[in-house]
Amino acid sequence: MRRLIINGYGAFVGYRKGLVLVKRKDGNESIPLGNLDQIVIATRGAAISSKLLRVCLKNRVEVSILSSSGSPLGKVFSVRRSHVKLRLAQVEARKNSRGARIAKKVVYGKIKGQSNFLKSLAKNRTGESKDKILKASERMDQLSSQLQELSDELSDIRQRLVSVEAEAAKIYWDSISSILPAELGFSARKKKFERPDDPVNVSLNYGYGVLASEVYSLVEYSGLDPWFGFLHEDSCRRPALVYDMMELFRTAVVDRAVVTLALRSPNMLLKAVDPASNRLEREFRGTLLKELFDRLEQEVSFNGQRKPIHAHILSQTRELAKYLLNHSQDWKAFVLGW
Question: What is the full DSSP assignment across 218-248?
Fold first, then answer.
C-alpha cells in the first residue's frame, strides 16, 4: 500500500494538476495522486484542502486521521454499498457454532503468533536466557492446544477464551521484559487507560492504535460490520470485529517493530516520551510510524502465499466473509512463523 504520512507541525497538504502538494517548514514535495492509496494525518498541526479531499474521494484514496495516541479519530473514504446479506450472516454466526469456532481460532492464532515470536528471539540468545524463552514458548503452545477442547457455544466459552489469552499474555510479556534493557523500565504490559510512562508501553499503545486504523479500513472494505465481533463483546467505544482481527497481527506488526527498536536503539526510546503528557515526542513518533508501515509492507508467508502483511490482513477479512456466507468450509487464522 502506498502511503503519504504527515507528522510535522505546520504542514499544508493540497492538490494541483494531478499532484498532491505538501508544504513544510523544511521544504516542499509533490507526489502524483495516482501513486497513493492512503494519506495519514498523524499530527494536529496540519491543514488539508477541501479540493484534495474531493479528489481523494473520487479516486478512492483514503485519508486517515490519527489521534496523538495513535488511535483512529476518523477516515475520509468513498461511500460504499453495504453488503446486507453478509452483515446479517455475521450477526447470526454469533448465535451458532460458527461464531465460537471463529473466536477460538482468533485466540489460537494470537497465542501461536506470540509463541513463534519468542522462538525467533531465542535464536539470537544462548544459555539460561535462551532456555527460559523457549520454555515460555512451550507453555504458551500448551495453552493454545487446549482451545480445541472447548465447546462450540460462544456464550459458554468467551470468558474461558479471555482467561487463556490473559494467561498466555502474562507468560509472553514476562519473557519480553526479561530481554529488554532494564533502563527502559518495562516490567509488565500496561494498556492506555493505565497511563504507563515507560517508552515501551507508550510505543506499543500508539502502535496498536495505528494498527486498529489499518484493520478498520480493511474490515469495512470486505463488507463486514466492524462493530459485531466474536471474541470481543459489543461496545459502543470500540469496534469489536476490528479488535478480533487485530489480535492476529499485533505481534507481527507492532510488537516486532517496538521490540526491535528497543533492542537496537534503547537510547532513542529513553527520549521518546514527553514526561508532561506521557505521549510520544513528534520526532520519535515519525520513526515509529515508519517502522510500523514498513512492517505492514514486509512480505511474509502464510497458508502457501507470500505477500505483504497488509495484504494478509485483507485476505483474512475476505476469507472470513466467505466463511460466514457459506462460500467456504473453514477459516484459517493468520499465524506468522518463526
Answer: HHHHTT--TT--SSSPP-SSS-HHHHHHHHT
